[in-house]
Amino acid sequence: MRNKFTTLWIWLLICPLAFDYKAGLDDGSHAMQIIMTLPVLGAGLILWLIAPSFTQRSRFRSIITAGTVATVAGSIVAQLMQDNDFGNYLRTLLPFGLFLLGYLAACRPWRGDRLEQFEKALFWSMALSLVFSFAYGMATSGGPLDDVRYRIISATFLGLQGVLLHQFVIAKRFTMINLALFLGTILIELLSVTRSLLVGTVLLFVFATWLSAPSARHLAKAGMRAVLTGLLLAAMTAGAAMFFPDVADHWAQRIYASKETTSGMDPTTITRLAEMKDQYDQVTSTPSALIAGKGYGAVYHYSPDYLPDLAGQISKKDFYAIREFAAGHNFWVYQFFAGGLLFGLWMPLAILLALGLGGIAYRVWRRRAPDLLYLPVMGRSLLLLAGLPAMSIGGNPLGPRYSGLVFGVALGLLVATYTRLSYAMQERDAKRRAQQGVPKKRRPGTPAPAPSVTPVTPVTPVTPVAMPTPVSAHAPALNEGRDPTGTMSRFTSA
């Protein structure tokens, strides 16, 4: 049944948290964050209830769903066993819960116009988050660059870059808005003096190049274009350094900061290693913690093993005074710390499985059927979700609420389009084999079909004529390769 408010629920799900400023750094009230989160929870629940359902099972979709649900639901077991502070538990779990909610709402066989609204809401909300984070950070900090750079980075910074790289590298569409946004992200990267962001951008560019080349010959050509683009960006960066000498000095300090420590590593790397070492020591201290984890919201410190490496950078008193309960900077280690072997590893493995199988399938389908319906949606979802492991280089992408929601929606869109396209390709292969007179392949152990009996009175079969699917005037981006036989509709209840 068509719901006339579905578009409203989609935008209410994605957009409010785009203005979620970093209130975790403040000691004031969090009422505004609560007000922004409640509409998101309500809209996500409504979308989950009114969404169409798949009519056929998918092993891939079942595995991803089970892994995501097990991680969030299993946190209750660790909370009951460890008895962490309940407020800290809820605050830390909320982004992971929003990730699950976004996944459940988006992993459905939505129609083309609904998918267009999902993609529009994701793109414009990430663009607004980019501008708002930069403006809010500059307005509230008001200090030197060392203070400003921590507040001007959006929670979905690399996710937006992934979507823009899809448009440039794969779709080869260049618009003024996309070019302006991408140049804005490069400028913010330079001002933030954050090496992990530059590394993430490079990895996303490599991933987009790999997706755009379905064969070795195309990959060689795409590699040459990537090298030329990299040289152009390097020239732009050098030019920007000449115009902003203060930023260049800060980059030089960050690059050569390792020379100021006794271990030869920069202080940021040492503190990250100290944090991960303490989390690992805590989770492996007892069998119960190793199995079920220490729980979300558990307090962790810096490992004393790294105190000598920070000599001259931090005092001993300040080092031992550090107590944190928020999601750790390393996404992969924190998942093991919070959920243990039983509940902590399923979500990271599900994300990697979706990116791996989705990327391989996308390249194959793009080579065999480049006009396949919803293939561009799958490509954009892949590069948006790829921003999650790219952001995990420098921090936990599921620490902020907004990024947790966006990456959950990206995973849902990826799994849903993968499921629908795999059905469509199976149907296309079956039609091709039928036209060529090749018998359909049977699974091992399946009995051969019974021979057909010729009827006494011949009956002329009537071949039904498939009605053409109308082209939507409201979703031009999704009309690429529209299947006039309506193959996709057979596998959904939409």
From TrEMBL:
Protein origin, superkingdom: Bacteria
Keywords associated with the record: Membrane, Transmembrane, Transmembrane helix
Compositionally biased tracts (Low complexity): 453-473
Signal sequence annotation: none
Record-annotated membrane-spanning stretches: 30-51, 63-81, 93-110, 122-139, 151-169, 174-191, 197-214, 226-244, 332-360, 372-393, 405-423
Coiled-coil intervals: none
Protein name: Peptidoglycan/LPS O-acetylase OafA/YrhL
